Amino acid sequence: MEPVKNEAKTNPSAKANLFSQVFFCWLNPLFRIGYKRRLEEDDMYKVLPEDGSERLGEELQRHWDHEVQKAAKDLRPPKLTKVLIKCYWKPYAVLGIFTLIEALCLSSAAMGKTTTGQIVNLLSNDVNKFDEVTIFLHFLWVGPLQAAAVLGLLWVEIGPSCLAGMAVLVILMPTQTMFGRLFSKFRSKTAALTDNRIRTMNEVVSGIRIIKMYAWEKPFSALVNDVRRKEISKIMSSSYLRGLNMASFFAASKIIVFITFTVYVLLGNTISASRVFVAVSLYSAVRLTVTLFFPSAIEKLSETRISVRRIKTFLLLDEIVKSVPNVLYTQCTFLSSSLVPPSHFPQSSLLSAILGELPYDKGVLKVKGQLTYASQQPWVFPGTIRSNILFGKALHPQKYEKVLRACALKRDMELLPDGDLTVIGDRGATLSGGQKARVNLARAVYQDADIYLLDDPLSAVDAEVGRHLFEQCICGILKNKPRILVTHQLQYLQAADQILVLKEGHMVARGTYSELQRSGVDFTSLLKREEEEGPQAPGAETESRSPRSRTLSQNSEVSHTSSIRSVKDGTEQLPAEPVQTVVEESRSEGTIGVSLYVKYLKAGANILVLIGVVLLQFLAQAAYILQDWWLAYWAGEQEKLNVNGTVIIQNGVNVTEELNLDFYLGIYAGLTGATLIFGFARSLVMFNVLVKAAQSLHNRMFNSILRTPVRFFDVNPIGRVLNRFSKDIGQLDAALPWTFVDFIQIFLQIIGVVAVAASVIPWILIPLVPLIIVFLFLRRYFLQTSRDVKRLESTTRSPVFSHLSSSLQGLWTIRAFRAEERFQNTFDAYQDLHSESWFLFLVTSRWFAVRLDGICAVFVTITAFGCLLLRDQVEAGSVGLALSYAVTLMGMFQWGVRQSAEVENMMTSVERVVEYTELESEAPWETQKRPPPEWPSQGLITFDRVNFSYSSDGPVVLKDMKAVFRPKEKVGIVGRTGAGKSSLVSALFRLAEPEGRIYIDGVLTSEIGLHDLRQKMSIIPQDPVLFTGTMRKNLDPFSQHTDEDLWNALQEVQLKSVVEELPNKMETVLAESGSNFSVGQRQLVCLARAVLRKNRILIIDEATANVDPRTDELIQKTIRDKFRECTVLTIAHRLNTIIDSDRVLVLDAGQIHAYDEPYTLLQNHDGIFFKMVQQTGRQEAVALLQSAKQVSSTLTQQSIMTNGGVGADGNLVIFETAL
C-alpha cells in the first residue's frame, strides 16, 4: 500500500526548553508559515512517540484482553471504563484504532449484528466524547473545594447571610446534575437514531444508481426524513436542556447576590460598597466552576459513559479464532477443482469454510499451505491500481508484467492517464465491473500461495476476456498450483482435474468430467448433454432443438492447445475501457464570510424572528448590567448618608435619615426578575433557531444529493459524502448551537464590561484603543493558521473513515491474505496523520490563550491604577463595579475569543454542508409536459443521432447513434468490454443528459420529467441491490400493490418458498444490503420488481453474469413468458442469453457496428459478432449458430403469417410517417 504521506517534520515540542514550553514559542515558525500561505499536510509535525496510534492501540488491547479474561473468571461483564483508566492517564484518541482492530477481527456472524454506519458513527462521534470529557473532568473535585474556600472568606466579610447565597448554589448543583442525567438519556436515544440515519445514508449513496433508475428517490427521502425527524426531536429536547443549563449559569450569580443581600439588609445590616463588591467578586470566582464547569463535567461524563457502553458492546462481538498459520482446515485434497453450484446454494459458503470465515458444526477441515482468494464481488481499496495488485508484496517487474498480461490488464494500463499508478476511488468507483474483477484476480495471482481459491472470477467479464483469463491465467500462469474455481461457465469444466457438483449445501457428485457424464447424476439436468452431436462444422444441420438449450464446449484440450496465442498478442487484441479519476476533496480557503452566517441563520428562521432574537439578546444584557448598577447605586446612596449623617426631625424627634428599603429592594427584585426572564427566553429561542437551521440544512443537503447526477458519486468516495452526513451534521446538531449561543452571551458581556468601565472612568477608552488593535491583529494572525489546521483536521479525518469502510468491505480478502496487520498499520498511519492535525489544533489554541491573557492583564492593571489615581472624583460604588467587572474579564475574554474562533472553525462544517446543498442538479423529476397515463402503450424506442458522455468535459462514449427498437421486440446488445453497452442504458435513463433525440412511442424523452420517464421502464441491473428494510419495502416501496400481487411475483421468480421460510415472511427485515441472500437470489428479487411494475419496456443489464445456468434459464423463461408483450433490451456477456433475440445490436467503441437478426450477423465472417461466437469454443459456437438459425426460421414463418408478406419493417414505416 502507498505510504499515507511523505515523512513529516520532527515535532519541535519534544526538544523545546521550559520557557518555550510555557509560552508555546516553539509554534512561532508554524504561525509565520500559516500567515504567508495555506498550510498543507507536509507542514504538520510528527506525532510525539507517546501519542503514536500503534503504541496506544497495542497497550489498550493488552489491558482489554487481560480485563476480558479476568471478567470471565469472576463471572462478570468486562468493564471498558476500568481498562481506560488503568491504561491511559492522558491519551484518549486511541479508541479509534481499537475499534478498527476489532473490526478486522469480526466474525461473519457478528458482522450481521453491526453495520458500517454504526462503526463509522462510533469512530466519528463516540470517540470524540473522550476529547470533550478530558477538558472538564478535574472540575469534579475542584468545584466543591473552591466552594468551601469561598464560603470561609464570605463568612468573614458578611457573616451568616452568606449561607443564604451558598444554599442557592447547593440547590443548583443537583438540579444541573439531574439535567445532565436527562441529557445522557436523550443522547443515547439520539445516538441510536443517528446510527440508523447514517446506515440508511450509506445504502442510499452505495445504491444511488439503482434508486435513480427505479425512480425511488421519494420513498428513500421519506425514510431518511422520518428517522431525521425523530432524531431532531430528541436533539431539540436536549438542546432545550442545554439552554436551561446555560441560562441558569447566566442567572445564577444574579440570584445568589440578590438573595444574599436581601437577607443581609432584612437582618438590619446596612449595605456598603466594599462589602457588596468583595461578595460579588468572590461569588463570581466560584460561579464559573460550580455552575458551568461542574455541570459540564457531569454532562460530558454521562455522555462518555454512554459512548463507552456503545463501544464496549461493539468490542464484545464475537471474533474469529485465529488458527495456526499454514494448518487451516479440508478433508478432500483438491487439485484443480471446479465447483458447479446452482446460485441458490451460496457457493461462497464452501470457500468461506476453507478460509475459516464460516464456523462448521462437525467434521474435520484441514488445509496445508498458504491460501489466497479472489472474491466473487470484486473488492478494491482506495489507492493506486499497482498497490491493489501488489497488496504489500515487493514489486518484481518481470513477474508483475506477466501477471498484468495474464489478467488482460496490459492494454487498460496503457490507456490510463498514469498507467498502473492511477488512483482508483472508493470501492473502485472509477473502474468498470470487468476491470475490478481483473484487478481482483491479478491480486490473487501475484501472491506466491500454495492454494488458490477463485470465487467465480470470470462472471464479470465477456466471453473473449473470460477465455483469455482462463487460458493464460488460471490454466497458464497457475498451472502448477492447486486451484479451486467456483464457476457457472460450463464450457471450462473439461479442463478441470476434478469437478464437484453442489446442490443446496450437499455434494451431489464428484469426479472427472468424463466420470460425471457416465454416472448421469443431477449434473446432466444442470448442463444439457450435447455429446451425441459430436464436433460439427459451423453451419451443419442437426436435429432441431429448443433455441435455448445449453451447450458445453467439447474441446477438452482447451487449457492446453486450443488457442494459445502468444501471451503478448493475446492482450493486444483485447479492448480496454475508459477510467474516471477521483477528484480531491475540496477544502475552501480564506475567512468565512458574513454571507455564510446569514445563510445559516436564515435556514433556521425568517427575518422577523431573527430581529426578535437580536432584541431579546440586548434586553437580557441590559437587565444584567442594570441589576449590578442598581446595587452599586444603592450602596453609593447609603455611603453618602453614612458620611453626612443627615438628621431629620420627625414629630419633634431627631431621627437619622434612612433609605426607603422597600423602594430600593423592590426595584432590585424587579431587575433580578427581568434578568431571569430575558436570560431564559433568549437561550431557548436561540437554541430553537439553530437546531431548526441544522434540520433544514440537512434536508436541503439530502435533497440536493438525491437530485445530483450519478457522475458525482462516481468521482466522490463514499467516505467523503458520509463524512458530511455524520461528522459535519453532528457538529451542526450539537456542538455548534451551544458554542454559538455561548459566544454571543460572552461577547455581549465583554461589551458590557467595557461599557461599565468607560462610564465610570471615561478616559479608560484611551489605552483601550491600542489594546483592541493589538488584539484584532493577534486574532487575525492566529486564525490564518488555525483555520487551515482545522480544515486539515477535517480532510485528514475522511481517509480514516474511507479506510475503515473499505476494510470492512474486503474483510474476507484481507484475512485470506493475512494482511490484517498491514491494514492496521495503514489505519495507524491515517490515524497518526489525523492526530498530527488534532495536536496542532490543540496547541495553537493554547498559544493564543496565553497571549490573550497578557492583553487582559494590561487592561485590568490600567483600570485598577486609574481608580487609585482618580479616587477623589469617583464614587466608591462605581469603582467597585468597574473593578469587579474588569477582573471577570481575565478568564471571560480569553474564553470568548476562543469561542469566536471555535464558532468560525465550526462554521467550516456549515460551509461544507452548504456546499453540498448547492450541487449541480439533474433535470426536474416532473415537468409541465406529462406523458399520457397509459404511455408507453407499444414500447417503440428510437435513437436519433444520439451522442452521450458522462460529463461535459468527459469523453463521448456513444457517437452519433441511430437505432430503432420495435414494439415487443427482443433485442440483444453485445460488444467487447467498454464498447458502450451500459452507456446506452445510461442514455436511455438520462443518468446524464444525451445530445440528440430519443423517442419512446413518439414522445421525446428529454421533454418529460425524469420520474415520468424512469418509472415507465423496468431494469434488472448488473449488481443486484437490496436495501435494509422489509422484503415488502424492497419489492414495493410505494405500497402500490396488494399482498396477492407480491406473492404472485415471488412465485413467478421461484422465491416464494424462500420468503415463506423467513421468520416474519414478507415483513422480515433484511440484513444490511441484503447480505443474507445469495447473489442469484438478489437478482431474482430484482426480477420480481420488474414483474410487478408491468412496464412495456424492460432493460436487462448483464443481469445473469453472476448466476448459474439454472437461475439464468429461470430468468430467461420468466422474461419470455411475462414480458412477451414488452420491448426487451438485454446487455449480455453470455451470448447464449441473447442468441434467440429477434435482433442483435453490436456495439464497438460507442458506435453501431451491426444491427440485424443473429443468424444474418453470423453469415458475416469478418463481423465482431461472428468472432465473439467463435471465441466461446467450437461446440458452443455450433450450438449458438443452430439456435440462431432456428429463431430465424421461426421468425420468417411468423412474419409471413401475420403480415401476409409485408416486410418486418412495416411497423417502423408506419411509425416514421406518423412522426
UniProtKB/TrEMBL annotation:
Cofactor: Mg(2+)
Gene3D superfamilies attached to this UniProt entry: ABC transporter type 1, transmembrane domain (1.20.1560.10), P-loop containing nucleotide triphosphate hydrolases (3.40.50.300)
Record-annotated ABC transmembrane type-1 domain positions: 106-282, 611-905
CDD domains: ABC_6TM_MRP4_D2_like, ABCC_MRP_domain1, ABCC_MRP_domain2
Main location: membrane
Biased composition (Polar residues): 549-565
Domain ABC transporter: 308-529, 941-1174
Catalysed reaction equations from the record: leukotriene C4(in) + ATP + H2O = leukotriene C4(out) + ADP + phosphate + H(+); taurochenodeoxycholate(in) + glutathione(in) + ATP + H2O = taurochenodeoxycholate(out) + glutathione(out) + ADP + phosphate + H(+); glycoursodeoxycholate(in) + glutathione(in) + ATP + H2O = glycoursodeoxycholate(out) + glutathione(out) + ADP + phosphate + H(+); prostaglandin E1(in) + ATP + H2O = prostaglandin E1(out) + ADP + phosphate + H(+)
Keywords of the record: ATP-binding, Cell membrane, Lipid transport, Membrane, Nucleotide-binding, Repeat, Translocase, Transmembrane, Transmembrane helix, Transport
GO MF, one annotated term: ATP binding
GO BP terms in the entry: lipid transport
Domain of life: Eukaryota
SMART domains reported for this sequence: AAA
Membrane topology: Multi-pass membrane protein
Enzyme class per UniProt: translocase
Keyword Repeat belongs to the record: yes
Keyword Hydrolase: no
Any one GO cellular component localisation term in the record: basolateral plasma membrane
Transmembrane segments: 92-112, 133-156, 162-183, 244-267, 607-626, 667-691, 763-782, 848-871, 877-897
Region (Disordered), start-end ranges: 530-582
EC number annotated for this UniProt entry: 7.6.2.2, 7.6.2.3
UniProt subunit comment: Interacts (via PDZ-binding motif) with SNX27 (via PDZ domain); this interaction accelerates MRP4 internalization.
Protein's name in the database: Multidrug resistance-associated protein 4
